[in-house]
Amino acid sequence: MTHMYQQAPGAEELQTRGVDLRSDTVTRPSAAMRAAMLNAEVGDDVYGEDPTVRRLESRIAELAGMEAGLFLPSGTQSNLVALLSHCGRGDEYLVGQQAHTYKYEGGGAAVFGGIQPQPIEFEPDGTLAIDRLRAAIKPDDAHFAKTRLLCLENTVHGKVLPLSYLEEAAAFAREHRLAMHLDGARVFNAAVRLGVPLREITKHFDSVSICLSKGLGAPVGSVLAGSAEFIRRAHRWRKVAGGGMRQAGILAAAGLYALEHNIDRLAADHARAQRLAEGLARLPGVEIVEPPQTNMVFVRVPGMDHHELARRLRERGVIISPAPVLRLVTHLDVDDEGVERVIGAFGEAARGRET
Ligand SMILES: *Cc1c(COP(=O)(O)O)cnc(C)c1O
């Protein structure tokens, strides 16, 4: 009998595909993860009958120290459903100017919910300054939207929000009766970097959205966690958004596998990002924007066209997204050899050598 999962990419295929640093979303499920998916016990989750989805939702809720969880197809939908569940039409949320929930989700909260974002410039450490947040809260007056929610992101562009800041932000939110949502697409990277259990981060929030399809290596899915009452509202909005899935245990099984096997190993991605930054910093003409905290290295190669750089790297088996500041992301499918290959390729490409 042949098993689909035996066709998972092996080392050879990864080799021919090159080292792909565009994002930690590019990982493909391992053979063992595919086996878990193949063997998942399933049911119709819209009827609430999929045991694997149920297990994933309660496992995340438990890790986050929250009452309930909800499995959704993407992080974007998970954040959208969270915003719709916290805010109504004419309400507003405070959010980072470069935050995913403001800038990179198609304006979904405004499109579907009549919810207005109030973007605030990030501080260099990825926090939103409390005095700026305070100044942005609207008075109770018919001229203004009602400020309801503070939305943070962690990690934010690879940076970890300090626990002391989260405490401060939560006190501020309580003082102003704002709910707190965490876009925790990569919150496990933050927890691993800080060496704390997830709930030490999430305890400051009313809700958290966590991606399974980034560094955790699952092919699809995010989980939203919060109070039982919040998740009941979110469950309704998920259906409205078209996110009710049927035998979704096939996907949830990958998420459960990821929680079991792929959290602690994020430390290896962080170490490789560190090694990558050190190696690149030694190359003439290559600048590291700041030391990496988790799995992202931001790099500048001044005076070189980034499309040309990307093309030269590609010829050397290294895949990046061209941008004035390059974001290089380490993940499950980048090993030590891959990191050395990237450093070597940058050395050649940035020196302007012709192939
Ligand atoms: C990827 C990401 C999301 C959205 O996840 P998708 O599954 O791609 O929709 C949300 N927030 C942050 C910070 C992300 O990196």
What does this structure look like?
By secondary structure, the protein is α/β, with parallel strands linked by helices. Helix content is 43%, strand content 15%. The protein has 15 helices and 12 strands. The protein has a 7-stranded mixed beta sheet with strand order 2-8-7-6-5-3-4, sandwiched between helices. It has a 3-stranded antiparallel beta sheet with strand order 9-10-12, covered by helices on one side. It has a two-stranded parallel sheet with strand order 1-11. Helix 2 crosses helix 12, helix 3 packs parallel to helix 12 and helix 4 crosses helix 11. The N terminus is likely disordered. Pyridoxal-5'-phosphate (PLP) binds next to helix 4. Pyridoxal-5'-phosphate binds next to helix 4.
- List bound small molecules: pyridoxal-5'-phosphate
β-strand amount: 15-25%
- What is the percent of helical residues? 40-55%
Widest beta sheet: strand line-up: 2-8-7-6-5-3-4
Query: Helix/strand-derived class?
Result: alpha/beta
Tally the helices: what do you get? 15
* Elements, N to C (H/E): HEHHEHEHHEHEHEHHEEHHHEEHEEH
| Number of beta strands | 12
Q: Based on Cα principal axes, name the global outline.
A: globular
Largest sheet: 7 strands, mixed
Cα(first) to Cα(last) distance is: 46 Å
Q: What is the averaged pLDDT score?
A: 94
The stretches of 5 or more residues where confidence is low (pLDDT under 50) are 1-9
| Rg over CA atoms | 21 Å
